[in-house]
Amino acid sequence: MASFVRYSTEEEEKAEGPELESEDDEESGAESFLTDQEMEGWDPAEDFDDYQEDDEEPRNSPVLQHESPPAEDPSTSPSGQDASPYASTKEEQPPQNGRKRGQARARPPSPPHSRAQGSRSKRAQRFSSGRTKTRSRSPRKPQPVYSATSWNTEEDPDACPETRRFVPARPPGHKLNPDQTYTPLDLFKLFFSNKAALTICNHTNKQAAKNIAKGKKYPWTNITTEEFFKYVGLTFFVALVKLGKISDYWKKNTIFSVPFPANVMSRDRYRAISWNIHMSDPEKDGENDRKKGTPDHDRLFQLKPLLDTIKNACLSFYHPRQNLAINERMVAAKPHSGMTQHMTAKPISYGFKLFVLADSSNGYTVDFTVYTGKSQFVSGVGLAYDSVMSLMNKKYLGSGFHLYVDNFYTSPKLFKDLFSLNVGACGTYRDNRKAYPHTDLNALKKNAPRGSIRWIREGPLVFVKWMDTREVSICSTIHPAFSGNTVKRRVKTQGDNWTTKCIPCPTPIMEYNKYRGGVDLSDQLIQYYTVRYNSMRWYQTLFFHFMDIAATNGYLLHKELCREKQEEPMSHKDFLEELTAQLCGVT
User: Collapsing DSSP states into helix, strand and coil, what is residue 408?
Assistant: First the structure.
């Protein structure tokens, strides 16, 4: 936009005198106005020292400006006595554009009606008091370094790195006796063993005695392992049969009455166990609480030893196949604690966050880590890097695995370090992150046709961009950029008609869509019949989630056994119903 300047006449200049503007006024557009009385009492030499000399070359602005007449040489001026533009008297005005660098600029005054008579702007007061200073520019943000490498297309051949041989530490699949018949209860007790149940019972009895000593008034008798498994069975029954609240399961003489829970356990007994269920030793909880703020404090102490039992069982009774996935899992939580997280992109946006390693072929939870805060991972590389490296245990897994992650985890450093461990990786990435190619040479344009492909290879890493309904970016150390694969898409033709068209699709995206959903499949199986008991104690929330993991992994082991014997497996619901009946002792 052009800026227009109004030049004043000699009569106006003599009447009002020159109006000055500091260099920062030129950028901000602020104006200052001085009256004749202010000009008579103003010493230009005082303000001249406040100006900083500008040694930079003038910037070429795209804004249209009026050409100014050339400055008059002071040596050839009629006065010939003072080269400073401030040396002029009121009768002899200085040339408007004859200033030197670092000096104030004479500016034509605004019309008299632009400001009320006698009013002074803050800028004018600063001029009169000699408090003018130059605006300091903030340093520019560092820009990414752009590579000079050009993007390749799908027509360019790609030299894929040598395929790593798949050498698992154990044969993939279940680690159970194939000649033995396993009931749903047997499979569940692989994760919730009798030993773990006995430990929980002992700690629950101690917690109940502690609460009664504090003044809690409810009848209590020590819980046994048999009663504990009945309590677990009723909890699964609550997950299968949805009612409004817990007390509804013991209602009588209503059309919604359910006789089964009352035949197993009374309502008050079920509530008393729920209030006191405890996994850690209450006597040692106080010792751990006194260590808060020190490195010796264990934030997951109240989950142990059940946490270690569940994790060891997940690793022991099954070995994953070649394709794995890592992702976050949110466990809905009612209580607020320092470990609860908020993730708006997840179906469960608030709760505890777990990093989960799952088998992409069936959704089996191989390993997991409960996130307790940034202090849990102290390598300095980043949370995404540390969470992946903590789950990819080469001693347990072996080598030659393929790991699929989303854009939260993908980074060139992580993929290169996994590649050095003979583990391939593939995942989407965000273009605005560092260490990714940013060259514009032959880059994918926003209006590129659907199915366009661009790729760059840097050693074992291949970066691929693909235009679908939007641009998709993916990185891989496993696949070539393009192998001739196509996918079907519905596209609009002339006349607003829709037709099916085959478009090229990069190999990493084809494989990523096939194997990325290991954790999502596990979450889906858990959410079908999840145990959600709204407890105000955070450790009890995770206790019920461990029950979900044990039941879901037990069902997946059941399917593995049936597939091996070529038998028809039970459905997920039938498996849980049979498990509930066996836990409650009705069959």
Answer: coil
